[in-house]
Amino acid sequence: MEKNIVVLPGDGIGQEIMDASIQVLTKVAEKFNHKFNFEQYEIGGTSYEKDGEPLTDETVNACLKADAILLGAIGGPKWDSLPPHLRPEQGLLKIRKALNLYANIRPIKGFEPLLHASPLKESVIKGSDIYIVRELTGGLYFGTPRERREDGNVAVDTLLYHRNEIERIVEKGFESARIRNKHLTSVDKANVLESSRLWREIVEEKRKDYPDVKVDHMLVDSAAMKLITDPTSFDVIVTENLFGDILSDEGSVLTGSIGMLPSASLSETIGLYEPVHGSAPDIAGKGIANPLGMILSSAMMLRYSFDLNEEATAIEKAVEESLEQGIHTADLKIHHGKEVGTKEMTETVISNL
Ligand SMILES: NC(=O)c1ccc[n+]([C@@H]2O[C@H](COP(=O)([O-])OP(=O)(O)OC[C@H]3O[C@@H](n4cnc5c(N)ncnc54)[C@H](O)[C@@H]3O)[C@@H](O)[C@H]2O)c1
Ligand SMILES: CC(C)[C@H](C(=O)O)[C@@H](O)C(=O)O
Ligand SMILES: [Mg+2]
């Protein structure tokens, strides 16, 4: 098949990991007889440098026409003191909103060879397989008013959800649980937040349509604790935007490194795929970034946007095999095998394809 993929490398380590991903996809195309066309556009600080804004209409229009989108990462200290609307992060939030990417899927499943790479006990994490369904276009990230008052001494953010926004993500959570292990944990803060009480009501309404799915409600503070003390007790977690952001970084500890986690951001019609981590300014340009989160995100693209399951599995297997051979980047704290840079890690994955 032939597909047009818009690539948005972004900032920091973005270009390094995007190059890795394109090389892997090129090998997959060769092997399975597909044609992937890559078109590169700017987002984030890189876009601000070129066009004075973190996301241009040109980039949005290209994404709207694409079959799928790959994104590296955005942000960095260079742009941290810009006014809020010009910050790289606004580019990311704008593209999510413009494409209506309301469902952010963040699977957390460790690879067997990395069980001992986590600071958590092997006996605690063994067998964990978690699928976070994070709401991505609402909540605190988008609610208004958002402003400073009283000469800047008072700050307001707004956590706002409409019923339909909660309904569609909760449905996604139930549908995901139904094809996995039939257990949905809805994470909220219903003991304090009004938006969480509406969220919980809607989960209770929807569960009637999914009698085969076991439902738990859990408060987010307790969920944060359980995620690392009893990770095998979770299957699908559905939660609002900010909680999902925080819990997914925490969950990455199970896999050995934030550099391992992929994600898919989905609307009804298109998908954008990006690793969970950020632009890692502390290691940018050093050639040592872990490309596996990005590479695994491109596997998710093949599976979710193009229905190429065999090809997606081939990438995941090649990653696993590379790790079995002991090849790993410096973020994975393991004391055997061979520590390599981004390029050699990528070449190893390609050679295992
Ligand atoms: N989706 C995104 O583009 C995204 C996500 C998170 C943060 N950010 C932005 O990234 C910038 C830096 O944020 P941060 O430092 O809090 O988070 P970060 O995820 O960029 O980095 C946190 C730590 O993890 C390490 N790390 C992250 N990815 C890695 C990889 N692939 N390989 C090896 N090590 C890796 C970094 O070196 C750093 O020590 C900020 O501007 C933030 O807004 C962007
Ligand atoms: C950079 C930031 C806006 C973003 C978020 O909070 O969603 C990031 O942390 C993520 O997890 O994708
Ligand atoms: Mg985050």
From TrEMBL:
Pfam families: Iso_dh (PF00180). Pathway: Amino-acid biosynthesis; L-leucine biosynthesis; L-leucine from 3-methyl-2-oxobutanoate: step 3/4. It catalyses: (2R,3S)-3-isopropylmalate + NAD(+) = 4-methyl-2-oxopentanoate + CO2 + NADH. The record marks 141, 189 as: Important for catalysis. One of its GO terms (biological process) is L-leucine biosynthetic process. One of its GO terms (molecular function) is NAD binding. Keywords: Amino-acid biosynthesis, Branched-chain amino acid biosynthesis, Cytoplasm, Leucine biosynthesis, Magnesium, Manganese, Metal-binding, NAD, Oxidoreductase. PROSITE patterns: IDH_IMDH. It comes from the Bacteria. GO terms for cellular component: cytosol. Its cofactor is Mg(2+); Mn(2+). It is found in: Cytoplasm. NAD(+) binds at residues 76-89, 278-290. Residues 4-349 form the Isopropylmalate dehydrogenase-like domain. Belongs to the isocitrate and isopropylmalate dehydrogenases family. LeuB type 1 subfamily. Catalyzes the oxidation of 3-carboxy-2-hydroxy-4-methylpentanoate (3-isopropylmalate) to 3-carboxy-4-methyl-2-oxopentanoate. The product decarboxylates to 4-methyl-2 oxopentanoate. Homodimer. This is 3-isopropylmalate dehydrogenase.
